[in-house]
Design brief:
This protein has about 90 residues and is α+β, with helices and mostly antiparallel strands. The protein is built from three helices and four strands; from the N terminus they run H-E-H-E-H-E-E. The longest helix is centred in the middle third of the chain and has 14 residues.
């Protein structure tokens, strides 16, 4: 679990990055999970957008992806969300 201080730091870092994923009407499938998993391993902090045509709302999409990728929800604002997971590789 992230502490409030850690979450705050990650939120400020997330302000600087652009969303790299869009979740649309197809929703969340194995391929989407695999892409998030790989991006989290490479970047640790990932921002995504949920399109208006998605059948799920932003919070539902965020929670499902976080659960399936074992990542932490940093924030959900409007149609955007940010996830964090520490990389397994030592840097």
């Amino acid at each position: 679990m992230l502490t409030g201080k850690q979450r705050s730091l990650l939120r400020s870092m997330a302000n600087q990055i652009q969303p790299i994923f869009q979740v649309g009407k197809e929703g969340i499938d194995e391929n989407v999970i695999k892409q998030f998993d790989e991006a989290l391993e490479a970047r640790e902090l990932v921002k995504a957008t949920v399109l208006k045509n998605s059948i799920l709302d932003t919070r539902e999409v965020c929670e499902e992806i976080a659960e399936k990728t074992n990542s932490e929800i940093v924030q959900v604002i409007g149609r955007k969300f940010v996830l964090y997971r520490k990389s397994k590789k030592e840097k």
